[in-house]
Amino acid sequence: MVLDKPRQPLQLRDVPKPRPARGQLLVRVSACAVCRTDLHVVDGELPNPKLPLIPGHQIVGYVEEVGPEIPSSFGIRASSFAIGDRVGIPWLGWTDGECAYCRSNRENLCDNARFTGYTIDGGYAEFTVADARFCFPLPDRYNDVEVAPLLCAGLIGYRAYRKTGDARRLGIYGFGNAAHLIAQIALYEGRDLFVFTRPGDTATQQDAKKLGAVWAGGSDEMPPEKLDAAIIFASVGPLVPAALRAIAKGGTVVCGGIHMSDIPSFPYADLWEERSITSVANLTRRDGQEFLDLAPRVPVQTKTQTFPLEEANVALDRFRAGELTGTAVLTIGQ
Ligand SMILES: [Zn+2]
Ligand SMILES: [Zn+2]
After folding, report:
1. Tens digits of per-residue pLDDT, 65-112?
2. Does the pTM exceed 0.85?
3. Which ligand ends up closest to the CA of 37?
4. How far lies 36's CA from each of 58, 216, 255, 260, in Å?
């Protein structure tokens, strides 16, 4: 499925089968979960996508061909996959390995990074190629559909969660896919969870309580006690000052999305006393390894709703309209 231009439906089209270059794997895609970022790309909210583009960056597939080896001076993982292996392909598709960020263990901020399904072709397709060093082996506990949403909602959610340090009282604004996965980890690690939904969305509040949240309410409400940290997964700027007012002295508000509407101004008093606001960008391979190691031990459960690849536009439309009951996962040849 190909995006020719933002704000147009994807086109179903036969494209030449990609060939793996040096250090790449050719992967036969089995499942690709849909992320909110895919919507931002398709809706033209992110600048300069590759065009035409095959979206999708939560890819599960099987190695069909291993490209020529890369020289050993470049890293070590190229030969760690063999034909037939199951691999996960995430958002971070390539980094230069040499900029100041890469050299200080912050490859998520690499100046020249390339992103799957945004600046390089992704997984809304039968085949894709990926740099082997950025692919993950996946835990056996999950089938292809179940594991797909872990690859972005899980990984980047996990990076946002780690930024909250050892916060005991953790707030989550927006209880979508990433929040649902990260809430399970927070509860497993003994945090007290406070969930904020759209005002009046009592069904989602009930779901959050069923999962184990100590409190769930609307984003216009204050929690019964001050929080040590909050993660905002909804792309709604006015939630930032709301979350600041809900946290205690020294607390942190982490913005977990790639795109957000403008943040309205707020009194300095809401930031005073060492409160901080930060954001999370992309992922490092280390985040991925840690999360994929932890997830099956919790075990983190995913909720999915499958669509055949050809119905990608239907999946995107339902996601945009808030009509999905789980993460949309496109299935290919299943
Ligand atoms: Zn770099
Ligand atoms: Zn994503």
Report:
1. 999 886 655 554 445 899 999 999 999 999 999 999 999 999 999 999
2. yes
3. 2
4. 11, 23, 14, 12
